[in-house]
Specification:
Elements lengths: L3 E5 L4 H17 L2 E8 L4 E6 L2 E6 H15 L7 E7 L2 H12 L3 E5 L5 H6 L2 H8 L3 E5 L5
Helix pairs in contact: 3-5
Length: 142
Amino acid sequence: MTGVVIVGVDGSETAMRAAQTAQQLAIGLGASLRVVSAFDSNRTEVVEIGTDKWIVSDAAEAEAVARAVAERLADDRLEITYSAARGKPGEALVKEAEVQDARLIVVGNRRMQGLGRVLGSVANTVAHTAPCDVYIAKTDQP
């Protein structure tokens, strides 16, 4: 395999569309795929029900989202890994791309119109700061 393709997910249907695009690109490039979900806080809660006790954190929730998408994308032609990354989504994807020495970052175009364009978006942040190529997948239509 040559290189790593990074895709950011947040549990939304549009992020899943970007992930499916990333899957096909990674297969075509002979690359591996890394599914990343960002979290921006260290919030942790302890939930107790009877004698059972669970620790729930933003990091754990983000990792669960990434794992679920990675499982949906499973394909014999592709090596897939997943992780949670701390930070704002665009910044977290760029940092993950740097750490993984990624070949490509795939993001969706969900908030590239109207006010979102003025205030910034994940795609905008990634496109301007990525250490590698960026593919903006059309995800605003099924």
